[in-house]
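quick one before i forget lol
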Amino acid sequence: MSELTLTLIKLGFLAVLWLFVLSAVSVIRSDVFGTKAPTATARPQAREKPKSKSKDKPAAKTRKPTRGVPTKLQVVSGPNSGQSVPLSDQPILLGRGTDAAIRLDDDYVSTRHARFATNGEQWFVEDVGSTNGTYLGSQRITSPVPVGIGIQVRLGKTVVELRK
């Protein structure tokens, strides 16, 4: 084997090694510091979808508040069991990050895992790009889904639900 071929193989191996190191550092950085928050223009689009559903069935939406209006989001099971946060008009972020309203000490939960938001009439849960997903029962959610009182939402090993 010539000296030139051997040098090219060494340089190629070195380049592949550096690509691996840089990708590992990128993953660690996003896990420690989190990802960038979505822009203000992305949030209204996510909320428009649930609002259009509420216009399709106005009679069903008027009956739901008579059964009770949720006042808090509570961790039912998992490492943070018993922890809760009062509900307001602002979205509630769940995850391991410092910007989360409920910080979960669950290895299977992402830094920014899920968000609970309201359109004024109904509460919705949406997965915000988590690695392991957000589940309603055994169904993985990919878009904002309406959630009522007592419906369990699973994030990793943690289960949360809306309560009175």
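fyi The longest strand covers residues 72-77.
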